[in-house]
Design a protein that fits this description.
Blueprint lengths: L4 H9 L2 H18 L5 H26 L4 H21 L4 H19 L15 H22 L4 H26 L11 H5 L1 H24 L2 H6 L4 H19 L6 H22 L2
Helix pairs in contact: 1-4, 2-3, 2-6, 2-12, 3-4, 3-6, 5-6, 6-7, 7-9, 7-12, 9-11, 11-12
């Protein structure tokens, strides 16, 4: 039976985990871009990155759909339907796109398409899965908005935002690996497989506490708070959100239901920018 393009896109959006991740990616991109660009441009950029993230995860799903040609076809069609409008939305920043995407794609390709089967290549490096995920997210969700909005000031912008986004993305990725510990091949040697469940949770707790500390210090040492004595509510609310993230990390267990990770943990990527926007009102 013939399926419309809308149906394929709906199949992608119906995937709860990918939908939450994509919304979080768009929110993170908006959080970064709003500091440097006009409101209209930041929302367009955020929507483009959200669609690109959803399409990219569908593409990865297609790569992993071995033995399921129908599922692979659906995922590839959904990826195309999502990546094409994303590229159209990113056309005003095509130079930034061309300068950033190869930095994300080349490491991913080296990991996803090993030169030989079995062990070897990047897959044999302990902890490489989290490092690769964080690298790609930093490139597309942080560096790309900065290249598009901050222009020649991208290095100073990176120095300002990486201390927040880098540990945040790492913590969320580690909890995702904790969820996948029992299903990931032992040859991947992810951080939870190497460190164990307890040490992984402790590491994530420290990362989230660090994010909250950096954000609240940045707020209180900002111009408005330091000179005018006003309360930096955006940063205060984000720090409160980090405490909620710490609670999620402490309570994380492999036995938790899927929605705990796909909605609550991945949803942190959306909640923190949302709290920032509420505090800025």
């Amino acid at each position: 039976m013939h399926r419309s393009l809308v149906w394929y896109v709906w199949q992608a959006l119906e995937w709860r985990r990918y939908g939450v991740l994509a919304t979080g990616a768009g929110a993170q991109a908006w959080w970064v871009a709003q500091a440097y660009g006009e409101p209209k441009g930041t929302w367009q950029l955020a929507l483009a990155i959200a669609l690109a993230t959803l399409g990219a995860y569908q593409w990865v799903h297609a790569l992993l759909a071995i033995g399921d040609p129908r599922g692979r076809g659906h995922a590839l069609m959904a990826a195309v339907c999502l990546l094409f409008p994303s590229l159209m939305l990113l056309l005003p920043w095509w130079s930034a796109l061309l300068s950033v995407v190869p930095w994300a794609f080349v490491p991913f390709a080296a990991y996803a398409f090993p030169l030989r089967q079995g062990r070897g290549g990047l897959r044999a490096v302990p902890g490489m899965k989290v490092l690769l995920v964080v690298w790609c997210w930093i490139a597309l969700v942080v560096v790309l908005p900065m290249r598009a909005m901050a222009g020649e000031h991208v290095m100073s912008a990176l120095a300002s935002w990486l201390p927040v986004q880098l540990p945040l993305f790492t913590g969320v990725a580690l909890l995702s690996d904790l969820r996948d510990r029992s299903s990931d091949p032992s040859t991947l040697r992810t951080w939870p497989q190497v460190l164990g469940e307890g040490w992984t949770r402790l590491l994530v707790v420290l990362l989230f506490l660090y994010v909250g500390l950096i954000v609240v210090l940045r707020g209180y040492f900002g111009y408005a708070a330091y000179v005018d004595g006003t309360v930096p509510w955006p940063e205060v609310l984000v720090a409160a959100g980090c405490l909620f993230a710490v609670g999620l990390a402490v309570a994380a267990r492999i036995t938790r239901p899927g929605w705990y990770f796909s909605v609550l943990v991945d949803g942190l990527l959306l909640v923190l920018p949302l709290l920032y926007a509420i505090g800025a009102m």
